[in-house]
């Protein structure tokens, strides 16, 4: 297992290299001039020329990419064209917000998706089965941006139950330790900040996790239906075990193997969906940061965010492969 994980970690490098090349080329091929974004349309040609030379934008693309790659290998993603701040520092400031939102959306998607899927499978063709699948189909059919806008209108504007933007209310103060507001509030014993942060997380988490919840529910249902018809499940029932033990101890564990695969892919979709969700809810995370960077043609910022998301996606899929072994001891990696 250790050698397998080491080989997978080494295999990540060419994947990240390929992604960095693609993103670099796309950012330099799309129209727009980052210098004019920085200086404005009324900037003098001399000043714009001077800044382009200072930023190395007149160098051939392969020279610019080589410069970026050498810095990236040393953990330096360069400086932002707009702010002149270190990109790694800007990403570090915003990453906890995206991580907290993604983890909450993932928890919501997995918890409700598995629950709906199990209920639908155990009570096949019942009202609960039909209701669960209607919710699942509705979740798959709704685009993130449309669902986000509907949640804002209903719960934020019409009912005014929940906040629709930011991570904390203005009047709430919280000491930064990890950058994860829920964790920081628990560490500092700040109950008011914890509930305020939780209220701010509800709407964006639902908008981000709804589609993945629906996919997980459908996958869990089909996997459970296949497992509960196996001979060993009939044997467990014939031994007189309680139905709850048969379902949750014997059937669900094996049914979760394909679901874990979907969950691994879900993390990637959530990170991608965070771009839209954070923009809709003005969430100060990497998604909104990336959108602003794309509008400003800020090449170092975009490349840094994409590389980080790609590395996270690959590492999560490696973690999924490791989890397989614990769910099914018959699986062995050489």
TL;DR?
With 334 residues, the protein is mainly α.
Outline the structure in words.
There is one protein chain. The chain is mainly α. 76% of the residues lie in helices and 0% in strands. It has helices at residues 2-29, 34-39, 45-55, 61-73, 87-122, 127-141, 144-158, 181-188, 191-227, 231-238, 243-280, 286-295, 299-327. Helix 7 (144-158) packs across helix 11 (243-280). The protein is globular, with a radius of gyration of 24 Å. The relative contact order is 0.15. The mean pLDDT is 83.
Shape: globular
| Uncertain regions spanning at least 5 consecutive residues | none
In whole angstroms, the N-to-C terminal distance is: 7 Å
Per DSSP, what share of the residues sits in E-state strands of 2 or more residues? under 5%
* Biggest sheet details: none
Total beta strands: 0
- Helix count equals 13
- Radius of gyration, in angstroms, nearest whole number: 24 Å
Helix share, percent: over 70%
Query: Element order, helices and strands?
Result: HHHHHHHHHHHHH
Q: Supply the helix-strand structural class.
A: mainly alpha
Mean pLDDT: 83
């Amino acid at each position: 297992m250790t050698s397998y994980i080491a080989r997978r970690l080494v295999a990540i490098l060419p994947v990240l290299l390929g992604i960095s090349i693609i993103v670099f080329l796309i950012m330099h091929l799309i129209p727009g001039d980052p210098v004019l974004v920085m200086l404005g349309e009324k900037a003098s040609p001399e000043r714009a020329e001077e800044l382009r030379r200072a930023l190395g934008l007149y160098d051939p693309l392969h020279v610019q990419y080589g410069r970026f790659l050498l810095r990236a290998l040393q953990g330096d993603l360069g400086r932002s064209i707009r702010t002149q701040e270190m990109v790694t520092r800007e990403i570090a400031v915003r990453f906890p917000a995206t991580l907290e939102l993604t983890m909450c959306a993932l928890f919501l998607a997995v918890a409700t998706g598995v629950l709906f899927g199990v209920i639908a499978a155990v009570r096949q063709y019942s009202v609960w089965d039909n209701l669960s699948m209607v919710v699942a189909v509705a979740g798959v059919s709704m685009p993130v941006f449309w669902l986000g806008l509907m949640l804002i209108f209903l719960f934020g504007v019409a009912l005014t139950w929940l906040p629709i933007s930011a991570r904390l209310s203005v009047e709430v103060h919280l000491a930064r330790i990890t950058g994860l507001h829920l964790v920081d509030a628990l560490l500092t014993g700040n109950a008011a900040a914890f509930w305020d942060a939780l209220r701010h997380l509800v709407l964006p988490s639902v908008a981000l996790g709804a589609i993945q919840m629906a996919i997980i529910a459908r996958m869990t249902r089909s996997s459970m239906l296949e497992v509960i018809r196996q001979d060993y499940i009939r044997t467990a029932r014939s031994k007189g075990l309680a139905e709850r033990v048969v379902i949750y101890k014997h059937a669900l564990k094996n049914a979760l193997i394909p679901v874990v695969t979907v969950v691994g892919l879900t993390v990637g979709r959530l990170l991608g969906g965070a771009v839209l969700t954070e923009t809709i809810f003005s969430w100060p995370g990497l998604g909104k940061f990336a959108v602003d960077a794309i509008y400003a043609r800020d090449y170092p910022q975009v490349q840094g965010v994409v590389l980080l998301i790609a590395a996270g996606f690959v590492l999560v899929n490696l973690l999924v492969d490791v989890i397989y072994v614990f769910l099914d001891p018959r699986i062995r990696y050489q």
